[in-house]
Amino acid sequence: DGGITQSPKYLFRKEGQNVTLSCEQNLNHDAMYWYRQDPGQGLRLIYYSQIVNDFQKGDIAEGYSVSREKKESFPLTVTSAQKNPTAFYLCASRIPGGDTQYFGPGTRLTVL
Amino acid sequence: SQQGEEDPQALSIQEGENATMNCSYKTSINNLQWYRQNSGRGLVHLILIRSNEREKHSGRLRVTLDTSKKSSSLLITASRAADTASYFCATDDGNSGYALNFGKGTSLLVTP
Q: Of A61, A39, A38, which Cα lies nearest the Cα of A48?
C-alpha cells in the first residue's frame, strides 16, 4: 500500500520537553510539508522540503525543527521554544510536477 | 502568506439537498483546490481548478472559479450523511515550494 504515515497518533508532552513527530511516505514524492492545525482553523505551513538534505521555513517555523536525510522521511521536532505547541500536526507530500498534496492521518500533540 | 476565507463557517442541511460553500482569496494563484477533512483525520483532495478554468465537475461536485473576484464555490449535489465533514479551499500561488494556503473551512452537517 502506498501512502503517508504519521506516528504517533496521539502525543503528550510535558512543558520543557522536545518531541519528534514522524512522517514517512512510500509514494516516491520529492516534496514534503508540515502543517499545523488549531481548532476551528485552517492549516498553517511550518516547514517544507523539496528535495533530500534541503528544507525551508514556512510561516510559523519558530520553535520547530526538521531534517530530511532520506526521501521517505521528514520528521518534525517540536522544541521547548514553541510556546503553544498543543495542536494537530499534518504532514503532506506532493508528486513531482504535480499540484495535489497527499496528507497523512495527523498527530495530535497535547502539552500537559 | 495569504489565506482563503470560506463562507459560511457552518452549514446544516438534510440529505438530498445541495450544499454550496464559497471561498475568497487575496492574491494571484496557479490553481485552487478543495479538500475534505473528517473529524480528527487528515485531508483528502477533492478537486482542483486551474486559474485559466472557470468550472469543473467531478461526480457530485461542481467547482467554479472567478479570478476577477478572487472567489470560488464548491457545490455538492444530492448530499448524503456521509458528506458530513469540514471542507477547505486551498490556493497554490507558486511560493513556498508550492505549499498550499488554506482557509478556515466550512463545517458541513448533513442530517438523514
A: A61
Question: Cβ contact (<8 Å) for A99 and B4?
Answer: no
Chain length of chain A: 112
Contact B20, B79 (CB under 8 A): no
> Taking CB atoms and an 8 Å limit, are A49 and B97 in contact across chains?
yes
Render each residue's pLDDT in chain A as its tens digit; 112 residues: 569 999 999 999 998 899 999 999 999 999 999 999 998 888 999 999 999 999 999 999 999 999 999 999 999 999 998 989 999 999 999 987 888 999 999 999 999 8
Residue that is written with C-alpha cell 508550492 in the block: B98
Contact B22, B73 (CB under 8 A): yes
Distance of CA B103 to the CA centre of its chain: 9
Query: Cα angle at B4 between A111 and B7, to 5 degrees?
Result: 95
Q: What is the DSSP letter of B17?
A: S
Q: Does A60 touch chain B (CB under 8 A)?
A: no
In terms of Cβ atoms closer than 10 Å to its own Cβ (0-12, 13-18, 19+), residue B30 is: middle
Gap between the Cα atoms of A58 and B20, Å rounded:
31
Determine how many CB atoms are found less than 10 A away from the CB of residue A1. 4
All 3 cell numbers of residue A104? Answer: 497523512
CB pair distance less than 8 Å for A56 and B96: yes
